[in-house]
Design brief:
Shape: elongated
Mean pLDDT: 86
Radius of gyration: 19 Å
Number of strands: 11
Structural class: alpha+beta
Strand order of the largest sheet: 1-2-3-10-5-8
Bound molecules: zinc ion
Number of helices: 7
Amino acid sequence: MTSHHPPETFLLDVATGALPEALRLIVAGHLAYCGECRAQVGHWERLGGDLLLSLEPVPMRTGALEACLARLDDEAEIANQDAISLERQGPVPPVLRPFIGADLSGISWNGVGGYFDEVKLPSITPGYRVSMLRVPPGKYVPEHGHEGNEYMLVLAGGYTSGGRHYETGDFSFCDAYEHHAPIADDGNDCICLLVLDAPLAFSDAEGQEIAPFLSM
Ligand SMILES: [Zn+2]
């Protein structure tokens, strides 16, 4: 069961299609684990449908209905895949599989200064950096601040940051005011999806060592 969720405005923006694709990816990943947030998105989607029904009809261009129905089929398929229980599907949310495959053990990691491993995913939204992060048991990411926002989704293991504990399926959000040094739980690797909209801000020697690996 998840304990840490995306901001409610993100759930509303998923329902309306207003969220940038990089953020939609990480929120949709969380939805695969979290029935509570899926229900909230469903609520917003139904509300949007009711609002549409209350509008005055206007003439549509030729072919608009067919194009709309075809798009609905695509999006319904994605939503259904996300909603199916992960216990039945494996450890990777369906929305992430085009990027990393269906099995976390198949990821080709790059070492980052001996502290953790990372692999940058293809850029899907200009201005966002999307990557996978693997921190060995008991190890940490050197202390850092943020020039913008940092979003994380735990896919395996867990970590502690700022006195809060995050486990598989949990979503975390740090803004430019927060400094932290997340520490992975003992026992298993902690594997996360990481989305940044600005570089991390490292201040000490350890951080300076790894900063070049994490350039936008
Ligand atoms: Zn949730």
